[in-house]
Amino acid sequence: MKSILVVGGAGYIGSHMVKTLTRSGYDVVVLDNLSTGQRELAKYGQFVEGDLADKPFLDELFNQYQFSAVIDFAAFSLVGESVTEPAKYYRNNVANTLNLLDAMLQHKVLNLVFSSTAATYGNPVYTPIDEQHSQNPINPYGASKWMVERLLQDYAVAYGLNSVALRYFNACGADPELELGEMHDPETHLIPLVLQAASGRRDSICIFGEDYSTEDGTCIRDYIHVQDLCQAHQLAMVAMFNGILTGAKQFNLGNGEGFSVKQVIVTAKAIVAAENFTITVKNAERRLGDPAVLVADATQAKTTLNWQPQYNQLDTIIQHAWAWEKKLAGLD
């Protein structure tokens, strides 16, 4: 049984990853400092509270366990906050990741799956975006992830570290078994915000701009179910174990199909209306820095990793998220 370290495993995506790995027969250690993670989401694996900034702690952790791979979700990810507090983002997302990489090398753990982001691309020159698209991040969050990707390329050449950087588009949905789901504080993602407006935990949902160059005038984004993200991480890890992937590789993770803000709201309205809930919608001006369309070309992940998203229908994604929201709101 291989032992896997999941850093940030008490977060939204990390907790789903730990469950996926555990169900697949891996021995999982969850490392989280709980700065944004939730202890109650660490339902699987062995939980260890600690911080990547603490080098002696990392050395002790790697001495205690014989890890075969590390999956790293640990990062601050609020774009707006990264603009006002860039030091916080570079220190946590870059400097602390360096500590992790150095601990891995010291203890000869040479397989890493890294949680990256479509924010490394910046404003799209074309869509759908493939991995060859230029990387010009427009905020410190995206820049911090791009810097780590650059580090991983250099560590592969110099030290033989194998890594797969997975560039997410819009992670969403919830565990179909309702053990896990999205519970950020503050919440910034569209689908849970829309559903909070249905459950009564929020008064309304706001559409920021209806004058984009899209069919209905609202922004289009690529939504990918959290379970499908986890499947891709495991496939990437196994590909490194099997020697199929070596060096530093990068893959986009998305459905390859975009849905507009209005499409998301209309779909959510139909789902909650079946249970006699309603959603109040308000309109506001555009926000700075919102591209009209962000859609992934995930062909490489599908062909190289044999990855096939299972939950790529918008209504399925929202149904899972709605079931989770009802549980959080005490409506289930």
Structure description:
This protein has 2 domains: 3-171 and 224-253, Rossmann fold; 175-222 and 256-328, UDP-galactose 4-epimerase, domain 1, CATH 3.90.25. The two termini are 37 Å apart. The chain has a 7-stranded parallel β-sheet, with helices on both faces. Strands 7, 9, 11 and 13 form a 4-stranded mixed β-sheet that branches. Strands 8-12 form a two-stranded parallel ribbon. It is 39% helix and 19% strand. The protein has 332 residues and is an alpha/beta fold. Helix 6 (190-199) packs across helix 10 (314-328). It has helices at residues 12-23, 55-64, 79-84, 86-106, 140-159, 190-199, 226-241, 261-273, 299-304, 314-328; strands at residues 3-7, 27-32, 46-49, 67-72, 111-117, 162-168, 170-172, 205-208, 220-225, 248-253, 258-260, 281-284, 293-294.
Biggest sheet features: 7 strands, parallel
CATH fold descriptor of the largest domain: Rossmann fold
Beta-strand level of the residues, as a percent range? 15-25%
Which structural class should the secondary elements be placed in? Answer: alpha/beta
Query: Do you know the CATH architecture of the largest domain?
Result: 3-Layer(aba) Sandwich
Name the helicity range.
25-40%
Please name the defining characteristics of this protein.
single chain; 332 residues; alpha/beta; Rossmann fold; UDP-galactose 4-epimerase, domain 1; four-stranded mixed beta sheet; globular
Please write out the topology.
Blueprint: E1 3-7, H1 12-23, E2 27-32, E3 46-49, H2 55-64, E4 67-72, H3 79-84, H4 86-106, E5 111-117, H5 140-159, E6 162-168, E7 170-172, H6 190-199, E8 205-208, E9 220-225, H7 226-241, E10 248-253, E11 258-260, H8 261-273, E12 281-284, E13 293-294, H9 299-304, H10 314-328
Parallel strand pairs: 1-2, 1-4, 2-3, 4-5, 5-6, 6-10, 7-9, 8-12, 9-13
Antiparallel strand pairs: 9-11
